Amino acid sequence: MGKWIFLVFLVWAVWQDLRSRTVGQGFLAAAGSLGAAVSLLSGRSVLGLLSSAAVGIFLLITDGGIGEGDGWFFIVTGFFLEPTENFMLFLSGLIFCSVYSLAYMAASFIGGVCVRQKRLPFLPFLLPVGLWLALS
Q1: Predicted pLDDT of residue 64
Q2: Is residue 74's pLDDT more than 90?
Q3: Helices 83-111 and 127-135, interaxial angle, to 10°?
Q4: What share of the chain is helix, strand, coil (3-state, %, to 5)?
Q5: Which of 28-32, 46-50, 83-87, 109-113 has the lowest mean pLDDT?
Q6: How many angstroms separate the CA atoms of 27 and 5, rounded?
Q7: Distance (Å, rounded) from C-alpha 54 to C-alpha 35?
């Protein structure tokens, strides 16, 4: 059941990210509470939840190019997923985003358009692997 809740959470978060380039804090708090409760009731330990959330924690403390909201997003996904699954979700999102960005840059150079200040929402690139994780 947790994977289905994760899938609904992911799709809703992707929709919010595409629409407004942000995911609501209240939504993240509610989803995180639900994810933690479902995981703890299914027998996962608190240490297991924290290790799964490590990807998001790392993103928050490094303050890198991915936004703070994405760090909180990966903390919440860590409550739903195992540590390796959450890391795979993050890494696959980086790969899909990188491939898209390179293709987008190449097309813009050919077309003579400057895309230097263009910002992409990150969460939509998580959808293919998120679907695979939820449905496998």
Answers
A1: 62
A2: yes
A3: 150
A4: 80, 0, 20
A5: 109-113
A6: 13
A7: 15
CB atoms within 10 A of CB 79: 28
Residue type, 117: Q
Here the tokens at position 54 are 């490590």
The dihedral formed by the CA atoms of 14, 67, 55 and 130, expressed in degrees to the nearest 10: 10
Residue 123 burial (CB count, 10 A):
22
Average pLDDT, stretch 119-133? 92
Q: Which two tokens stand for residue 127?
A: 């959808």
Residues comprising the chain, all counted: 136
Distances (CA, A) of 8 to 3, 66, 80, 99: 9, 23, 11, 26
Q: Would you tell me how many other CB atoms lie within 10 Å of the CB of residue 136?
A: 7
The amino acid present at 110, given as its one-letter code, is I
